[in-house]
Design a protein that fits this description.
Glucose Oxidase, domain 1, 2 domains, 14 strands, single chain, alpha/beta
Length: about 600
């Protein structure tokens, strides 16, 4: 199947725009690859330090410089449910390397914060910046130049994008990303959301809420809703950085262990010491980036990736824009309904056919590029499979099912849930913003309402508690952008906004903060840029101004006389309370140097 015309056009314009920066990047990683194995350039004292803790056989192998050494970058901690399974992975990877006559070493660890723990807390103001810290931490680990390839152990929100940026900085090395999988299914997402809303209304207490939350987030693995963490896993598979079928296999299973060992062996097979040299900087290309955006739209994935994908692409010299993302949304159909844009979780999605089925539908109808490099070869159709165990306990693969196991969760192309993707870019005289529309009822895609302006989540919730938010409301929560306070997620607002909407009010949220992959049923224009802190138009909104949010035409506007609006002074806000405590004082340089949301909100040049 040839590529769909509009997808092809957008890919070509990204390639044209990126020509100079991409060429420069490829030249740089080729020059690094041409130098050969890095260890050969280390002085004897350097090398002795590098393998001092190894056993005698590994020392001999590394000294000879003919046996590949696999670097492990791990985001393990046992507070984060998704990352707790990684505790045992280094031993599995070392064993797998030994089986093929190679060596593996933990090159370094990176921080891994849980947005679920920090949600609504001061620590959330470090969350977005942690992505760039992770990239730099991984670079420190790889900078020893002891490694011929790397595997990356990470799964959650900012962690995978940070690891991808680091991998691309060392783009001359092969890289395989190894997931840990989702936790098993707990209580239904509908039940969880209902208890949260009852708590917000004061109808149940903290004990009932904690019991409900504990039944939902109950074991090792990623949270099972389709937020940023599981969107990350989709992206890594769609972009060819996972082994086929690896993303959504539960932790602690024989298949999960076999996939981990297989991934380690595959990374070692791709080094410059063998015959299948495949550096990660060549895997991530304009076509694979477009495939990632297509996957994001087709699954109704996380709004965070309107920033992360831009930042990841930039690390490979590829200039992706919000307009590219929005234009792809116009043509890519939504094929998946997983909470918050459906009742199912990712385990149901996997059981219905998972990514193998989804990717086959998209490839067969020309929405994805087939001719891309992956860690498994040069043909993305190799990913239209399910991973299984054979009789010897090794990974085998079978074609994905011809039919979805549940068309309410995973639809074939001729029964797509909607003809456009789950994300939309908005623009107008308030700047640019992103909205996740896949979970919003169609009759709420256009909202006109008077503004109520707040400078914190707490201000909004106090007004809600005082029963001030009656009638239609466009809630403007500003000074939440990356320069202001690190761009926290504002999920504390979700129950209250949901209650207002359920009462029959027409409600929208407009913010320069984030809502992430859990953006739900209330229309939310998020990532507004320019942000209030830099004098963006959102800083000029006043209570009572009429706001129009139109997710059909892609408009975000204030309906006042434009000249008078332009003449208004910008509001200001004392942000000193956001600059100290829980480590925020250490991130002043990030707040001062961070880029805008639409350019990836990163600090790298």
């Amino acid at each position: 199947m040839t590529i769909q015309a509009r997808v092809g056009e957008i890919t070509e314009r990204i390639a044209r725009r990126s020509h100079d920066s991409r060429s420069s990047y490829l030249e740089r990683i080729q020059a690094a690859a041409d130098k050969g194995p890095q260890r050969s350039r280390l002085a004897c004292g350097n090398l002795a330090h590098g393998f001092a803790a190894c056993g005698p056989s590994d020392k001999a192998a590394l000294a000879g410089d003919v046996v590949p050494n696999l670097g492990i970058i791990t985001a393990y901690n046992d507070m984060l449910s998704a990352h707790q399974p990684y505790e045992l992975y280094p031993d599995l990877i070392r064993a797998a390397a030994s089986e093929v006559g190679a060596v593996a070493q933990v090159a370094g660890g990176v921080p891994a914060m849980c947005d679920g723990v920090t949600q609504g807390q001061e620590g959330m103001e470090l969350s977005l910046f942690s992505r760039d810290i992770i990239a730099m931490s991984a670079a420190v680990g790889l900078s020893h130049q002891m490694f011929d390839a790397a595997v990356f152990l990470g799964i959650c929100d900012k962690i995978v994008p940070g690891l991808v940026i680091a991998a691309l900085s060392f783009g001359h090395l092969p890289a395989v990303f190894i997931p840990a999988g989702p936790m098993t299914t707990g209580i239904s997402n509908d039940e969880k959301a209902k208890v949260r809303q009852l708590y917000a209304e004061g109808k149940v207490g903290r004990a009932e809420l904690l019991e409900s939350e504990s039944k939902s987030y109950h074991g090792p693995g990623t949270c099972t809703f389709y937020g940023t963490a599981n969107s990350n896993q989709m992206l890594m598979e769609v972009m060819g950085l996972h082994m086929p079928g690896a993303s959504f296999v539960n932790p602690g299973t024989p298949l999960r262990e076999a996939l981990t060992k297989e991934a380690a062996k595959r990374a070692l097979a791709m080094t410059a010491l063998g015959n299948e040299f495949t550096p990660v900087g060549e895997i991530i290309s304009e076509k694979s980036i477009v495939n990632g955006v297509v996957g994001l739209h087709a699954t109704g994935g996380s709004t965070n990736h309107t920033m992360h994908l831009v930042a990841m692409a930039n690390a490979a010299g590829i200039k992706l824009t919000w307009d590219d993302i929005s234009d792809l949304s116009d043509v890519v159909p939504l094929l998946s309904r997983v909470y918050p844009n459906g009742k199912a979780d990712v385990n149901h999605f996997q059981a219905a056919g998972g990514l193998g089925f989804l990717m086959r539908e998209l490839l067969d109808h020309g929405y994805m590029h087939k001719d891309v490099k992956t860690v498994y070869g040069d043909d993305l159709s190799a990913y239209t499979v399910e991973a299984k165990l054979d009789a010897d306990g090794n990974v085998t693969r079978i074609p994905s099912p011809e039919r979805s196991g549940d068309e309410t969760v995973l639809a074939p192309m001729d029964k797509a849930f909607q003809t456009s993707g789950g994300l939309k870019v908005l623009s107008g005289n308030l700047g640019k913003a992103v909205i996740k529309i896949s979970a919003v009822a169609q009759e709420r895609h256009i909202i006109e309402a008077p503004a109520r302006v707040f400078h914190s989540q707490e201000e909004f919730l106090a007004a809600f508690s005082r029963k001030e938010l009656t009638g239609d409301v466009a809630a403007v929560v500003r000074f939440m952008g990356p320069q202001a306070c690190g761009m926290p997620e504002l999920h504390k607002l979700t129950p209250a906004l949901g209650i207002m909407q359920d009462r029959g009010q027409r409600v929208a949220l407009i913010t320069d903060g984030r809502m992430s992959g859990a953006s739900g049923k209330v229309p939310a224009a998020i990532h507004v840029t320019p942000e209030a802190c830099s004098g963006g138009p959102i800083a000029k909104i006043r209570d009572g101004d009429m706001i129009r949010l139109d997710a059909v035409s892609g408009e975000l506007s204030i309906l006042v006389d434009q000249q008078r609006f332009n003449e208004r002074p910008c509001a200001t806000q004392d942000l000193s309370d956001h600059q100290t405590g829980v480590g925020r004082d250490l991130f002043a340089a990030f707040r001062a140097n961070v880029g805008t949301a639409d350019t990836g909100a990163h600090v790298f040049g």
